[in-house]
Amino acid sequence: MKKYLIFFLLSLSQFSTHAEGTSEGGIQLLSGCLPSSPVCKNCPEYQTLFPIEEFSPNTGNLDIEADESEIINEKYFLSGDVKVSSDNLFLSADNVEVSSKNNSLLATGQVKFQDEDYLITSDLLNATRDEEGELIATASNANYQDFSAGIGGANGYANFISKTPTSVVLTDSTYSLCPVNDNDWLIDADRIELNLDKNRGFADNAIIKFYGVPIFFMPKYSWVLSGRGSGFLTPSYSTYTDIKAKKDQYGRKKSSHSFRLPYYINLAPDRDLVVALTWMSSRGFLSEGKYRQLIAPKISSEHEESILIAEAKYLPQDKKTNLKRWLLNFTQEIDFSDKLHLSTQYYRVSDKEYFKEIARTSTHDKTLYSNLELTYTDIDANLSMGFLTEDIQVVNAGAPIYTRAAEGSINKTLLSNTRNPISVGFISTNFAHKKEDESAGIRTHLNLEISRTLGINYPTITPKAGITITQYALKNNPNILRKISNYGLDIDFTKNYSSSMFGFEANHKISPLISYNYRAKKVQGNIPIFDSEDTYAEIITFAGLTSGERYSGLDRITNRNDITVSLESTYRAVDAKDIDKDLLSLKVAQSFYTDNEVVSATTSTNFETRKSYSDIAASIDIAVGNYVFSHAGQFNPDTSKLVNKTNTLSYISSSRKFLSLAFIDGGRTKTEKFYGALPLTNSIHLFGGLDKITSTGIRVTETSGIAYESCCWAFRLAHFKEDNAKGGYSYSTSGELILTGLGSTQSSLNGRIESYIPGYRASLD
Q: For domain 2-228, which CATH number applies: 2.60.450.10, 1.10.3210.10, 2.30.42.10, 3.40.50.300?
């Protein structure tokens, strides 16, 4: 029997909890299975308490089906496979009793309830109104599910459910964010309140169970129902070998242990704070805090968000040294406008051995930089200006170096829209040094360049000329003035063709280039080296050879009277995006010198001899689908051998499935680097990395681990081996368990794993 009527209890639809993301009832949820995303590949097939029913298309009406119905004393009695449907709710039961006198409803026997957000099955469901007209709904022996949130929706069982428009109270209940019938973990509590006004969940006598085993108990527990909220994050446990640990009779160092418990504090929508306490068995208790604040959103897509981050770690008394150990790291990035940007950082630790003995990471860093930099960039006006001041702290095996106590710079291109652009650059730097006997001072550099593109279609001929003036005002040394002029000519034979490569339609660009450059030869052995390095020391590259600049920095400027011949050929897919690599890129270059001497970077040495021609710099890069191969080599024509080379091969399908191999032969130093991740199943993957100096046998870093990821929990175990720069290795093993909605994947492991395995995304899904 089927009846259609205007139903006076349409307000029953208010039974919906409107939890607005109860599935996000924890802090910083895992991002693997969101309501708007497809079912994750590592999740079971999405299940609901019962098949989802379609609502009635008749707005304002109820569709009712029942085997039998009768009206007695203003009550409707429906029995036998009762189905009630409106445009926003569905109810089925063996028996339904509706009273028009007190606006109440009672459903019994195999009750199934569905609204826009929740599914409920129970033996009995009652709905009525209080004196203020608010709807109160109750159910006993009920299973519930927030199906609107998809796989991430909360579900569980309650001996008794009481629902008002502002809260849901669950008595003798369970609560889980795992899929239905697959509750790998859950909260078992005497009482759970979902306060919709406060967007919080509260549990009394809560026991967190993992595969039925109690792992945590709290008399009171609270979490956020939607979005971010304060609460405990994922704890992590590690074992490690302390660098100062004593050896046993077998020469082995005793392992130590650490346990880290973080707590997240949601201060405001634009700021938060993470505090943590770490117990290190060999050192003591380390407390830490990390504060983040969004100062301003992005000004444009080319900019980043303006943000402030402050981090501090403090060990009041190291059990090994009896010293106070600490770390301070403050960074701030602010865009005052689309042209003006401020960047600041203050980075310090208590002592140079902090990373080796306390942090057990970044042990190969040599310096920590603190700086303040203000930059102004106007692209339309071809103008840029900057001010920088910096300081360093030497850590690990580092040694003092020059720092920029203050630096100001300005660059401007005049007549940029003509065939005769003029480039003007000015930079003045006050170099400081920790050692008093070093030749610190102020270096002021002016650079002027002019070029002209001749009115010839092919080839493109560009003559150029310039002059550089550098003034050194040195402490305890005579001032030095250096003037060097230069001129040159570029002949560019670039052509573009339509072609194909590896089955793709491609644009083929071939660029033969002949460049002649002259620069005056100047004695420079008396000038201190503040920031210049020899870029030819390891390998001569195509970019370095064609630029004509052997030294980075301005303390050495090479003499030139040479011709450089280069050829570059690239194939690029016609539909390639900016981030895509060229299908094929071939580059080769060589320089020919008329002067057999060149400016030297050796202290107190003016010139060094060289051949009449350079080694040949060549490279080939191939990118097809997920495969990328690169080779760069330095070929000596006299010996017909590659004296330096770099080979890399990578396969990248995702951050969970990739392999990257690199072999670097720098002549005196040979290095191998291996990074990768391998999925064993949809839920389990291995990851690892190795950075080894093969010429010495030293393994700089070695990382290995395994991770499991599912819809509602994840686990990771990682092992680290790191050269301690003292003839030995430091070892540590860390593990963490993440329960979706109750913990964050942003643990202390993430940064360390990602720094040791480039390309791997350490956040667990």
A: 2.60.450.10
